């Protein structure tokens, strides 16, 4: 049976990077006779403009039917002033939780051609290959109660709740251990167990699962403040990092910068059955939207992750990853990864270059 994809371009640079990724998707679909079909839908600000909601029912129905979702990015200043509960980013949180996309995989891989684009010395980052596994549907981003209340003295107070149950911790840790077995067999679980009870339980639960089922994988634990420091001091010590929603959000952006540009990093958000939403790690970059200068490679590499994790088409995934390497070898660079002596290209040209590389 053919597999169906829902494409949500979103806002800002979303439509531009998705156009480039879609041309790569068409090419790979033909080249490997994958039989994939797809349709488009609305999420975020684009959906608010049409339906008044960032994740309207029509998109929800499309998303539930699809086998995988490819997303650009959502949000932008146009919608910053509207009521918090219907802001574009809420649409993103809603689709993730409705589809139970609890496992967010963010690889931070340094392409050797981009070693100079990293803010760290080449010897510290060359060969870097980290996979951050972030819990995505729990923790403080979803915990209740939350809000801003007025105290008796008239002062306002903001509050959120960080909660994780054992089953939520176990299922994300399992994903991390399983993926580690396919890579360097090392998992570092990041917590703040010295201060937060919720992460004390996190640490205990990960340790128990390791003892029961994954003794063949090396497990270490690290406090989040130390992990943030170690990522810039000696990032190659890590193989798979597993952590909660908030810490994972921050650490994965930090890891992103080790690779030179956030414009290079794809991500996958998976449910328990391999259905997933695939998107670049970056946001909608309103500052460069509509200028044909955004880097589409993170989105194109997200297509590769989709082929690998949702459709088990490893060969096709690798073909895209090789094409990206080849185009970087040719010296083509978007503005964010450009260095003197190389050839600067726009979003569309970069997408076309990947298509050409796949066709040769
Ligand atoms: P951002 O990731 O959009 O941009 C940060 C910086 O990186 C900007 O200077 C931007 O120009 C640059 N950048 C990002 N992607 C790039 C690319 N592909 N090529 C070249 N440069 C790129 O983060 P932000 O500025 O904090 O947020 C902008 C908007 O995006 C906000 O509305 C935010 O809520 C939203 N956002 C959405 C998502 C998502 O959809 N998953 C994630 C993060 C932020």
Explain what this protein looks like in three dimensions.
The chain has 360 residues and is α/β, with parallel strands linked by helices. The chain has two domains: 1-107 and 271-360, Isopropylmalate Dehydrogenase (3-Layer(aba) Sandwich), CATH 3.40.718; 129-258, Isopropylmalate Dehydrogenase (3-Layer(aba) Sandwich), CATH 3.40.718.10. The chain is built from twelve helices and 14 strands. The strands form three sheets. A ten-stranded mixed β-sheet has the order 2-1-3-12-11-4-5-10-8-9, with helices on both faces. It has a two-stranded antiparallel ribbon with strand order 6-7. Strands 13-14 form a two-stranded parallel sheet. Helix 7 links the parallel strand 8 (186-191) and strand 9. Helix 8 runs parallel beside helix 9. The longest helix has 18 residues, at 14-31. It is globular. The two termini are 29 Å apart. Nicotinamide-adenine-dinucleotide binds next to helix 4.
Task: Provide the domain count.
Answer: 2
CATH C-level of the largest domain: Alpha Beta
Structural class by secondary-structure content = alpha/beta
Q: What is the beta-strand fraction?
A: 15-25%
Give the strand line-up of the largest sheet: 2-1-3-12-11-4-5-10-8-9
Rounded mean pLDDT is 95
Unreliable segments of 5+ consecutive residues? none
Largest sheet: 10 strands, mixed
Task: Give the overall shape.
Answer: globular
- Helix and strand sequence: EHEHHEHEHEEEHEHEHEHEEHHEEH
Count helical runs: 12
Say how many strands there are.
Answer: 14
Straight-line N-to-C gap: 29 Å
CATH architecture field of the largest domain: 3-Layer(aba) Sandwich
């Amino acid at each position: 049976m053919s597999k169906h994809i829902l494409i949500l371009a979103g806002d800002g640079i979303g439509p531009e990077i998705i156009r480039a990724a879609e041309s790569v998707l068409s090419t790979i679909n033909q080249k490997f006779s994958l039989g994939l079909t797809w349709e488009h839908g609305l999420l975020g600000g684009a959906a608010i403009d049409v339906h008044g909601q960032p994740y309207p029912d029509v998109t929800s129905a499309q998303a539930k039917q699809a086998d995988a979702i490819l997303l650009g990015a959502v949000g932008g200043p146009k919608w910053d002033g509207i009521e918090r509960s219907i802001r574009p980013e809420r649409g993103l949180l809603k689709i993730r939780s409705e589809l139970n996309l609890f496992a967010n995989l963010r690889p931070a891989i340094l392409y050797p051609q981009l070693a100079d684009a990293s803010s760290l010395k080449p010897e510290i980052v060359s060969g870097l290959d980290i996979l951050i596994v972030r819990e995505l549907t729990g923790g403080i981003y979803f915990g209740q109660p939350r809000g801003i209340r007025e105290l008796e003295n008239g002062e306002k107070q903001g509050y959120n709740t960080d909660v994780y149950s054992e089953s939520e911790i176990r299922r994300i840790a399992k994903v991390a251990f399983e993926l580690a077995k396919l890579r360097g067999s090392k998992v570092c679980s990041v917590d703040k167990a010295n201060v937060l009870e919720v992460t004390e339980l996190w640490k205990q639960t990960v340790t128990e699962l390791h003892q029961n089922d994954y003794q063949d994988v090396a497990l270490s634990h690290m406090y989040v403040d130390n992990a943030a420091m170690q990522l810039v001091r000696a990032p190659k010590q890590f193989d798979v990092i597993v952590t909660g929603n908030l810490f994972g959000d921050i650490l994965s952006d930090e890891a992103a910068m080790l690779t030179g540009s956030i414009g290079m990093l794809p991500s996958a958000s998976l449910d328990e059955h391999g259905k997933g939403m695939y998107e670049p790690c970056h946001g909608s970059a309103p500052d460069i939207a509509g200028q044909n200068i955004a880097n589409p490679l993170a989105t194109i590499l997200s297509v590769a992750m989709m082929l690998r994790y949702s459709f088990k088409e490893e060969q096709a995934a690798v073909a895209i990853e090789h094409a990206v390497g080849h185009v970087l070898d040719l010296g083509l660079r978007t503005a964010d990864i450009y260095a003197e002596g190389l050839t600067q290209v726009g979003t569309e040209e970069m997408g076309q270059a990947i298509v050409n590389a796949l066709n040769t």
